[in-house]
Amino acid sequence: MAGPSPFDLVRLADLGVSEDPDGSTQRLITAVSRTILTALNRPAILPQSYTEIRTGGGSSLLLANWPVTAITKVTIGSASVSAANGFGSGYVLQPADDAPPGRPPLLTLPARLGSAPVKVTYTAGYQVSAEPMPIPPGAPCAVYPVQPYGAWASDLGVVYRTGEALTRVERGPARGQYAVDDAGGYFFSSKDGGATVAITYGYVPADLANAALDWIRDRMAYAERVGMQSKSLGGQETVSYRITALPDFVSAALQPYRSVVPPC
Fold it and tell me: What is the pLDDT of residue 227?
């Protein structure tokens, strides 16, 4: 049976589906999600690491993936370049937008690009960083993040206020540990009850998730009328169906998220 893909934009529960014995609905979720990512010209929207290599041009470049959450390393030729700190030259990354869809980030370098290749390693994707989460005294129980821009999709870590990281476990967390379920519910030990931690997690922007849901429901309805473009209702009325590769209602939602920077 088909299982969820890490690139899925929605889950079975989002469709109100509790059982999928043959896996057909899950396969449809994955297929539509991958088609949307292809239309966006983006390999993923959840946080992951990327490496881009560029040659030639001016002293700045647009990175192909956003929002950028961290720059790991920048090199020009064999020379490593540090971030500008106000006391010397270095690279400067344009600040990311807080809310999606955001914009491709501009990376400004301390020198004009020449024949030497520029290599940038960074992480990018939609995430909420260090969101405060109070642990109820009655833990363990499910505690959910605020999710201001879209549904939780991936766990990226939990820390105490001191910055000390908690360890993720599958179930039954002890002090200093946590567990998380597939819906983004966090569980902590009763010994951590009353404390406040900071969680970081990836999310799917709500408008992308809604576009995926609408398209999936449209494809499920199409399965009942495969190949049918119109039908007559008692000779009094004709119903027509518009069949397109990318429905207009989906295309409009995707437009702000499309990448125009060729992947490297």
Answer: 47
